[in-house]
Amino acid sequence: QVQLVESGGGLVQAGDSLRLSCAASGRTLSNYFMGWFRQAPGKEREFVACISWSGSWTYYADSAKGRFTISRDNAKNTVHLQMNSLKPEDTAVYSCAAARTRATTPSAYNYWGQGTQVTVSS
Fold first, then answer.
1. CB pairs under 8 A, 24+ apart, for 60-68?
2. In the structure, how many helices (H) and strands (E) does the chain have?
3. Percent of the chain having pLDDT more than 70?
């Protein structure tokens, strides 16, 4: 069993940056692909980024490319999402998740955090 807890969300202005963190407990994350997803009010959960267990492979949604960077520190059992040049349309609850395989669909992920709110004002 893996427990995931996100932190780092908040209220920022357009153009600002935020760094989200996801801390794991219960089991090491080193054998899992890790992903970040987001869900805005009234919308479906949306893939943002994912990273392989070694950190050597990453993949981003088009909306995140060039602005967001996913990283991980297996020694600290943490995953991060650096978000730069934030836009109002980035406003959502951001959740991290763990999967046994490379995937961008939520159904492939086995463990989820509770999410952290990111609000970007214009």
1. 61/104, 63/89, 63/90
2. 0, 11
3. 100
